[in-house]
Amino acid sequence: MDGARSGPPQGQGRAAWLVWGVTHALRLPEASMPWDTRPGRSANGGPEGPGAARLRVQKQCRKSSFAFYLAVRDQLPVWLLEDIRASEAFHCDERGRAAAYSPSEALLYALVHDHQAYAHYLLATFPRCALAPPSAGFRCCTAPGPHVALAVRYNRVGILRRILRTVQDFPVEERVRLLDRRGCSRVEGGGTSLHVACELARPECLFLLLGHGASPGLRDGSGFTPLELLLRQLNQDASSAPTEAEAASATVNAATANTTSSEEVCQRRLLLLDLLALYTPGGVVGPARCELLGDQLRWQRLLGEDKFQWLAGLAPPSLFVRAMQVLVTTISPGRFPEALDELPLPSFLQPLDLTGKG
After folding, report:
1. Residue 17 falls inside a structural domain
2. Would you say the pTM of this structure is higher than 0.85?
3. Within a domain: residue 88?
4. Across 55-69, 75-89, 163-177, which has the greatest mean pLDDT?
5. Which of 2, 138, 202, 331 could bond 134 through an S-S bridge, CB–CB 3.0 to 4.6 Å?
6. What's the rounded Cα separation, in Å, for the pair 114 and 157?
7. Would the keyword Repeat turn up in this protein's UniProt record (predicted)?
8. Cross-strand pairs, 99
9. CB atoms within 10 A of CB 11
């Protein structure tokens, strides 16, 4: 066996072994590269057919992509990840050719595994490419890049903040298209990133999106705005509310298992409602308003009198809410959320960690 296949020198760390494993052990004999689709020799010495060559390439790509997955998951250094990404083929593109991962696809890996340093590098070095739609193997429709929604889904507040800062330098139409991207109707219900934040109770993500100009009035595939979706979820939570004994037991179990209790989720949803109120001048209309008015006592207990009156269109927002609406709209997206430190924020905004470090 030649020196190239004997492994890295003794004493080298895990990173060196990973580089060697990807760049040497996964390659084929006789210096044939994983993305080499030229017919080779079969096991019996005869010529290799095109179909066998494609299968060989696909197998090697799967090995390479798994090695890259492990490298990002293990938070290996940025320079090493980029070296791997630039030197290996990981998947077959739309034309069936083996290809390396694009910055967009690498950013998806960084988002899933919360590799903030790698995400920041990709966004700083390839701002448009990193947020471009990935190849067909990473998506099910022709919607714009899914990175914003994915950051919300995985609650990657720090990376989301960097993405939103990056898109501020994009042309207005391109920025709006990314912020208000509608997800796949089959997989994501046709909702925007705001819908995802409401569905998964992500107040920090919601506030960042609203502060950077995401539109709260867009409807998902079922016809709900984020506010209406949130009210629907609050209604479901209230309908399935446990008894006091069950709630106490659930809280203890959640604390033991380090999970979120139903009461905490409900509190997050109410916080989401407060945040949406800052960016939604009017209340709800249509069936949602009828639902509020149809069971006023129940909704008043759940939301509070002032909030119920405003949402149902029976009264304007309180003076405090109106003042906060004016304050937050004076902050330009380029100064959000740093400029919040200059504002007299209400108590319900104080616990929000918009840095992604908490």
Report:
1. yes
2. no
3. yes
4. 163-177
5. 138
6. 10
7. yes
8. 91
9. 6
Q: Rounded to an integer, what distance in angstroms lies between the CA atom of residue 40 and that of residue 42? A: 7
Instruction: List b or e across 191-210, with b for residues whose CB sees 16 or more CB atoms inside 10 angstroms.
Output: bbbbbbbbbebbbbbbbbbb
Quote the pLDDT of residue 200.
94
Does 16 map to a domain?
Answer: yes
Task: Give residue 108's pLDDT.
Answer: 95
Average of per-residue pLDDT values in the chain: 78
Q: Does residue 79 lie in a domain region?
A: yes
**What b/e readout covers 236-245, taking b as 16+ CB neighbours within 10 angstroms?**
ebeeeeeeee
What confidence tens digit (pLDDT) does each residue in 103-153 have? 999 999 999 999 999 999 999 999 999 999 988 777 766 667 799 999 999
pLDDT of 239 reads 78
Domain that holds residue 88: 1-38+50-101
Strand 91-92 and strand 98-99: the pairing is antiparallel
Taking CB atoms within 8 Å and a gap of at least 24, the contacts of 79-87 are 80/15, 80/18, 80/19, 81/106, 81/115, 81/118, 82/121, 83/19, 84/18, 84/19, 84/22, 84/23, 87/22, 87/23
324-338 pLDDT, tens digit per residue, is: 888 888 888 888 878
DSSP H stretches of helix in 25-75: 50-73
